[in-house]
Amino acid sequence: MRRVYGSAVDDPGHTHLNSSARAVLAETLDVARATAEGRVEQGDLEPFALVHAKGDLQLVLLGDVAGALSHADGTGRVAAALLRRYDAAGFAIAVATVASPDGSPEHPQAREVVRIIVGHADGTSGATWCELRRSAGGPRLSGLWETAG
């Protein structure tokens, strides 16, 4: 599986992405980021997906499979099911989780994040992370970063 992370989706220098796949991934990622931000601001942290099928983006709530999204194999199965069920060209899966150096929420550097995984039917995939900050004004997403892991 080829992996493309964050801004690489939009980088025309990545010649392994055809223009159609690049366009699907870029649009799906942009809308997923905006959707995640809006849902977080409303206090809604239920996992969701956007599927890019027949030229449109469709929101799919994933609360019933939230447990599967906590590990790579489960996320892969959910992604494959979305691609098949909706005959989709691409998808984005957004889920609230905790990021820390050792993977535990107890670690002093642990952060609440929203992880957005984006993928294309051709096998290209990537991930973006947004930190979830809580304040008196309500939760907000801030600081996007990409990871290769």
Gross morphology: globular
- Mean pLDDT comes to 83
Number of strands: 6
Spatial strand sequence of the major β-sheet: 2-1-3-4-5-6
Helix content: 10-25%
Sheet bearing the most strands, described?
Answer: 6 strands, antiparallel
Tell me the number of structural domains: 1
| SSE ordering | HEEHEEEE
What amount of the residues lies in strands? 25-35%
Number of helices: 2
How much is the radius of gyration in Å? 15 Å
Low-confidence stretches: 1-8, 10-15
What assembly state would you assign to the polypeptide chains in this entry?
A: single chain
Broad structural category = alpha+beta
Describe this protein with a few key phrases.
149 residues, 6 strands, 6-stranded antiparallel sheet
Topology (elements, then pairings):
Blueprint lengths: L18 H23 L6 E6 L2 E6 L10 H14 L4 E10 L11 E10 L4 E9 L6 E7 L3
Antiparallel strand pairs: 1-2, 1-3, 3-4, 4-5, 5-6
Plain-language structure description:
- This protein is an alpha+beta fold and 149 residues long.
- It has one domain (6-146).
- It has two helices and six strands, in the order αββαββββ.
- The protein has helices at 19-41, 72-85, and strands spanning 48-53, 56-61, 90-99, 111-120, 125-133, 140-146.
- A six-stranded antiparallel β-sheet has the order 2-1-3-4-5-6, sandwiched between helices.
- A hairpin with a 2-residue loop joins strand 1 and strand 2 (56-61).
- Mean pLDDT is 83; it is low at 1-8 and 10-15.
Question: Summed up, what is this model?
Answer:
The chain has 149 residues and is of the alpha+beta class. It has one domain.
